[in-house]
Amino acid sequence: SSTHNTRIERLWVEVGSQFGRAWRAFFFRLEGLHGLDRKNRHHLWLLHTLFLDEINNDCKEFQENWNAHPISGEGHDCSPNDLIFLGRLEHGAYEDCPDVHVDLLNRCYGVHGKPIERQTHQTGAGHPADEEETLGTEEGKEWHGIHGETDTDNEEWAGIFNQEAIEAPKHADPFQSGYYRSAFTTALEQLKESGQIPTGYGIHHTEWDAGYPSFGVIRSGRRGRKELRIALPDSIWRPRSLRWVQGLYLMNQLI
């Protein structure tokens, strides 16, 4: 749980700054300019189909870079990969936590700790300080502060912090059979190879008098009044926008 582990909090900020916020801004762009309806299950399916592999590749690249970066302080400027290698040289390879009771593992490696309070519009996933409005001194201390837990606190706040899980948006395959799904995939490849750009979806050059934008905007803070501009290099993100438009155009034609 990222609300109980400050190291995970810092990691989420890195995930956001390295690649997560760019994808987030891109999806806002699709919603604002290119017809994405985030409440449409078929649109979510199309997002998964077109971009999930690339997002996973970005996650994998981040993981590799993260495990190769030096750690200051107790890490003595060694990377996680270095520490694993040196540890195995010194101590050998061994089974993790052999014969350790699961309750002890949960106590030592679980989510127990001091909770971080946050405002209702924040998830804790990749929110650095520059995405939040500055609060008053006392209010800011109360929100950002980390308070110690007591049994009384746990009882009083059980109904607040132990709420039911929020369901993730569901996606649904719009095609009723493998035949139509295969036809969609084939037609999409042919459309990409032909270079044809559907009109009416905000991607054709005739629809942009001042040129296609090279950045995206993420709104944050109370009522979304603060804007964070995220660079979306044209060579990377415009082809992805075009792929979305071509996929959406074909899906609309087939269903």
Describe the structure.
This protein is mostly helical. It has one domain (6-119, 143-155, 170-254). It contains 8 helices and 2 strands. Strands 1-2 form a two-stranded antiparallel sheet. A hairpin with a 5-residue loop joins strand 1 and strand 2. Residues 2-91 form the Integrase core domain. Residues 119-149 are annotated as: Disordered. Residues 138-149 have a biased composition (Basic and acidic residues).
Can you give keywords for this protein?
255 residues, mainly alpha, two-stranded antiparallel sheet, 2 strands, 52% helix, elongated, Integrase_dom_put, Integrase core domain-containing protein
Biggest beta sheet attributes: 2 strands, antiparallel
Radius of gyration: 23 Å
According to DSSP, the number of beta strands is: 2
Content-based structural category: mainly alpha
Shape: elongated
- Report the total helices: 8
| N- and C-termini, Cα separation | 40 Å
Low-confidence stretches: 133-147
How many discrete structural domains? 1
| Helix/strand order, N-terminal first | HHHHHHHEEH
Q: In oligomeric terms, what are we looking at?
A: single chain
Task: Work out the strand percent.
Answer: under 5%
Percent of residues in helices = 40-55%
Strand order of the largest sheet: 1-2
Mean pLDDT: 81
